[in-house]
Design brief:
Radius of gyration: 22 Å
Structural class: alpha/beta
Helix content: 25-40%
CATH architecture of the largest domain: Alpha-Beta Barrel
Oligomer: single chain
CATH class of the largest domain: Alpha Beta
Bound molecules: zinc ion
CATH superfamily of the largest domain: Metal-dependent hydrolases
Number of helices: 14
Strand content: 15-25%
CATH topology of the largest domain: TIM Barrel
Order of helices and strands: HEEEEEEHHEHEHEHEHEHEHHEHHEHEEH
Low-confidence stretches: 437-451
Strand order of the largest sheet: 9-10-11-12-13
Distance between the termini: 61 Å
Length: 451
């Protein structure tokens, strides 16, 4: 065992000379010493928890310590928007033209052909292994929930939630189109979500009955004391104003539980007048906005033989300016909606910084993959670095954001309750035994797409 490993396992040690973003600390005690808002501090870890945080060199440290030489420390990542049930199906069900419509038809065929409990379980667990190794402490996943599908995915989710409870906090949101909630089955689904302690969710589309659908969803949520989580305006249609409608209905219902709206892409192509009006309503309704830059950059503005122009992200800077919580998250992972990804919070943050220009200045944007999603998920003891909290930390060699976001940081150390975990990622071959690639099925998908 190396000396550093012995120190980590000693139960009482200091992490010396670390850089922590001011926004992830108790601000009243510290001032940043870099232009990027990083504070140089020493952290004391005692019996799995952070027991003190002091300015570097302000105390004489007598206990064992590890000098991190300015390396950045993050709290564990919090991934508020994923689709673990769909993850890792892209090899057996590839999206051959990369469009949103093909993603939907391809997924439907995959569900019919393959979604048995053991298949869904294996892929979801593989995603959890990736997330955990990267340093994630909490995940919210949407679960495709039409008809009897809900029984399958919620049952698998529950098993994983229990088995992983010491490693990753898991939350589930049902995913259906909102018209479903006007049916008896939709009401049964709302009951199921309540039974599983989940969040009521769905995809809002512009349609003549949207207001009626939203009224029903808010009523079902209020009756069962549920929070809400919507997929909204994931398109570049100028007329798509579901976010606006949701905010209006939330205000009308005086809804007091948390509301999350994800994507909100169409806002970026609307007039300044509509943008201003919608942002004002979103603020009034206390809605948190989630942007999924990797997935949206992949899907939006895609057409064959055409170079994409539009980035697909929503108005993150404008929302933030009004004090509306902005979060970035993984979304899909190696499925027809996004052919890449590994549920790595650092990759999400890195890509978000580059795609949405979050580096001028960095401000408190790193909260958007840590503290802000934790707060909106009702988890006040993770996603931040404070005295008394578990030492669930990610230690990077990188000393500045430019170093942090220029390399994959594969050599990061992930501490859980003060001790390093195994950060080896699961082997993709693990999926081979459990998720069979069906050559005949692939053929049928290709025929379907070429229609
Ligand atoms: Zn999604």
């Amino acid at each position: 065992m190396s000396i550093i490993s012995e120190i980590f396992l000693s139960g009482h040690y200091w992490l010396k000379n670390v850089h922590i973003p001011l926004c992830l600390l108790d601000k009243s005690h510290f001032t940043p010493d870099t232009r990027e808002g990083l504070c140089r501090v020493d952290l004391e870890i005692v019996q799995e928890k952070i027991s003190s945080i002091v300015l570097s060199d302000s105390t004489v440290i007598e206990n064992t310590f590890i000098d991190l030489k300015g390396g950045i420390i993050f709290p564990g990542f919090v991934d508020i928007h994923t689709h673990l049930d769909k993850s890792h199906i892209c090899e057996r069900s590839p999206n051959l033209d990369g469009t949103f419509d093909t993603a939907i038809t391809t997924l439907r065929k995959d569900v019919q052909a393959f979604w048995q409990p053991e298949d869904v379980y294996a892929r979801m667990e593989f995603s959890l292994k990736c997330s955990y190794a990267h340093g994630t402490t909490a995940i919210r996943t949407h679960l495709d929930s039409f008809g009897r599908q809900a029984d399958l995915v919620f049952e698998v989710f529950k098993r994983l939630q229990t088995q992983w409870q010491d490693k990753i906090i898991l939350q589930a949101v049902c995913l259906v189109s909102l018209d479903y909630f006007l049916t008896d089955e939709g009401v049964i689904l709302a009951d199921k979500v309540a039974e599983y302690g989940g969040i009521l969710g769905g995809v809002a589309y512009m349609n003549p009955y949207l207001e009626k659908q939203l009224n029903q969803v808010f009523t079902l949520a209020k009756e069962r004391n549920l929070s809400l989580d919507f997929h909204v305006d994931e398109n570049n249609d100028f007329n798509s104003v579901c976010l606006h409608k949701i905010a209006e209905i939330a205000i009308k219902h005086e809804f007091s539980n948390q509301i999350i709206c994800s994507h909100c892409c169409s806002l970026a192509v609307q007039s300044q007048e509509i943008i201003n009006r919608t942002i004002k309503l979103v603020k009034q309704a206390k809605i948190g906005v989630v942007s999924l830059p990797m997935c949206n950059l992949y899907l939006q503005d895609r057409a064959s033989n055409k170079t994409p122009y539009w980035r697909g992200i929503t108005k993150v800077h404008e929302f933030k300016k009004q004090g509306i919580p902005i979060i970035f998250a993984s979304d899909n992972c190696r499925d027809p909606f996004f052919g890449f990804g590994d549920h790595d919070g650092l990759e999400v943050f890195k890509e978000s910084v580059r795609i949405a220009h979050l580096d001028t200045p960095y401000s408190d944007w790193c909260s958007s993959v840590t503290k802000t999603p934790a707060t909106l998920m009702g988890l006040s003891s993770i996603g931040r670095i404070s005295i008394g909290l578990n030492a669930d930390l990610i230690l990077f060699k990188a000393r500045y954001f430019s170093e942090l976001l220029s390399r994959p940081q594969s050599d990061r150390i992930v501490l859980r309750r003060g001790k390093p975990i195994n950060t080896n990622l699961p082997d993709y071959a693990e999926l081979d035994n459990l998720v069979l690639v069906n050559k005949d099925y692939n053929k049928s998908v290709q025929v379907g797409i070429s229609r």
